[in-house]
Each structure stands twice: as structure tokens, then as C-alpha cells.
Write a structure and sequence with these properties.
single chain; transmembrane; Cnn_1N; membrane; coiled coil; cytoplasm
Length: 292
């Protein structure tokens, strides 16, 4: 877009220079025609022919400049439309990508929250299961103690007349019985505690991941707001450039009208010295420039 504006500015400067040169040449030609008309009519006819050739060349040059201006304006309009279409396409792609990422993040957060709830429920279930196992083991121990026959149960109270051998046998029986029933509890409790600890760690990691994904979602939301602001700025800038192109086109039209008026002034100045065909030539030239 900037290259198109520079090209139009360059063409405008060239037209200004050509207009100034044309005015100077017309002025000097008027002086020469006036001098030669006073000297001889043959010089006037010859100068008139030269002026016709000069006018034809200027008309051709003006048409070329007009074609260049039309091409430049067409290029500027096409660039403007292409930029608008490209901007809209990129904005739509960005919006689709952002929507897709938001959906993926929301799905991940929902799944992680569900997994965290399941892990929390599993930890609570394992904790209750470990507690029930502990209570069951203690209950089985009490039951086993109650179901021991009297002849196999260790005598807790020994008579003073009991021998030392009987005391040692009774103590060894008590220790073996206690070791046999507490071994099951010791094998179950570490496993339960370890499982509860693993589930707690997994739950904490899931919650940390959920927090991280929530932070990423907030970052993406801020990025979407920034992109929307950029889109609004680009839209306003594009509208301003369209207005500038319209103003420039009006300026070019005014300039072409001024050039046509200059041709008409030349026609008015030289019309008293021209014959009928010459006047018709200048009239055709003026109306041709006015149409262009």
C-alpha cells in the first residue's frame, strides 16, 4: 500500500512539473507568435503548424500520464482489497486456532478434575479399607484369644509352686501367639499407608496441573483480547487509507480539470489568429481534454 502511495505521489509531482513547463512554453510561444505575426503571415502559419505538432505531442503525453494514473489507482484499489481479504482470512484463522485451543484446554481441565475427584475418592476408600482391615485384624485377634482352649491357653497367673520351666513355657507361648497375630497387621498397614501416600501425591499433582492449565487459559484469553484490539486498529487504519485514496483521487481530478482549463485559455488567446479549420481543431482538442 505504501508503494502505491509513493508511486501516485511521484506521478503527481511529474504532472506538476509538466504543467509548469507547459505554461512556460505557451507563454514563450505566445510571445513568438505575436512577434512573428507582426513581421509576416508566413511565419504565423509556420508557427501555427509547430504549435499543432506541439499540442499533439502534449496531448499524447497527457494521455500517457492519465493511463499511468489509472493504472496506479487500480493497483492501489486492488492492493487495498487484497490486504482486506488477507487480514480477514488471518483473523479468522487466528480465531479458529484460539477457539480450538480453548476447547482442548477446557476438556483437559474437566478430565483432570474428574481424575482428581476419582483419586480423592480412591484415597478415601483405601483409607477406610485400611482402617477396616486393622479393626478386622484386631477383632480376629480377640476372637482367637477367646477361642483358645483352656488347656492351650497360657496361664496368666502362676502359682508360687510352679516351676521355672513352666513359667518359661508359658511366656514363650504368649510371645509366639502375639507375634503370629500381629504379623498380618504389620504386613497390611505399610501397604495401606504407602497406597494412601501415592494417591495423595497423585492428587496433588493433578491439582497442580489443573492450576497450570487455568493459568494458560487466562493467558490465552488475554492474548485473544490483544488480537481483537489489533484487528480493530487495522480496520480503522484501513478505513483511513481508503479515505486518503479518495481524497487523492479528487485532487487528481481537480488537477486534470485545471490542465483542461489551461488548454482552453490557449485556445481563446490564439483563436483570433486562426482560420475556421484551426478553430475547429482547438475546439476538438479542448473537449477531448475535458472528457479525459
Amino acid at each position: 500500500m505504501s508503494n502505491g502511495y509513493r508511486t501516485l505521489s511521484q506521478h503527481l509531482n511529474d504532472l506538476k512539473k509538466e504543467n509548469f513547463s507547459l505554461k512556460l512554453r505557451i507563454y514563450f510561444l505566445e510571445e513568438r507568435i505575436q512577434q512573428k505575426y507582426e513581421e509576416s503571415s508566413e511565419d504565423v502559419y509556420r508557427t501555427n503548424i509547430e504549435l499543432k505538432v506541439e499540442v499533439e505531442s502534449l496531448k499524447k503525453e497527457l494521455q500517457e500520464k492519465q493511463e499511468l494514473l489509472d493504472k496506479a489507482l487500480t493497483t492501489a484499489e486492488s492492493l487495498t482489497s487484497d490486504n482486506e481479504a488477507e487480514r480477514q482470512r488471518r483473523c479468522q484463522e487466528r480465531q479458529q486456532e484460539i477457539d480450538h485451543m480453548q476447547q482442548v484446554l477446557e476438556t483437559k481441565i474437566q478430565l483432570l478434575q474428574e481424575e482428581a475427584q476419582l483419586a480423592r475418592g480412591e484415597a478415601e476408600r483405601m483409607a477406610s479399607l485400611a482402617g477396616s482391615h486393622s479393626h478386622a485384624s484386631l477383632a480376629s485377634l480377640d476372637t482367637a484369644m477367646e477361642e483358645v482352649p483352656e488347656d492351650e491357653s497360657p496361664p496368666h497367673i502362676l502359682s508360687p509352686s510352679s516351676s521355672s520351666k513352666d513359667r518359661c513355657r508359658t511366656r514363650s507361648y504368649d510371645l509366639g501367639f502375639i507375634f503370629k497375630n500381629t504379623k498380618l497387621i504389620r504386613s497390611i498397614l505399610p501397604f495401606s499407608f504407602r497406597l494412601i501416600e501415592d494417591l495423595t501425591k497423585e492428587l496433588l499433582s493433578k491439582e497442580a496441573l489443573v492450576s497450570e492449565l487455568c493459568g494458560e487459559k487466562k493467558t490465552l484469553t488475554l492474548r485473544v483480547e490483544e488480537l481483537e484490539e489489533q484487528v480493530q486498529e487495522l480496520s480503522s487504519s484501513l478505513l483511513q487509507k481508503d479515505k486518503d485514496v479518495e481524497v487523492f483521487w479528487v485532487f487528481i481530478s481537480i488537477f486534470l480539470v485545471n490542465v483542461s482549463i489551461e488548454f482552453f485559455h490557449v485556445f481563446l488567446k490564439y483563436s483570433p489568429m486562426m482560420t475556421g479549420p484551426q478553430c475547429l481543431f482547438w475546439e476538438d482538442l479542448f473537449f477531448l481534454n475535458k472528457r479525459t
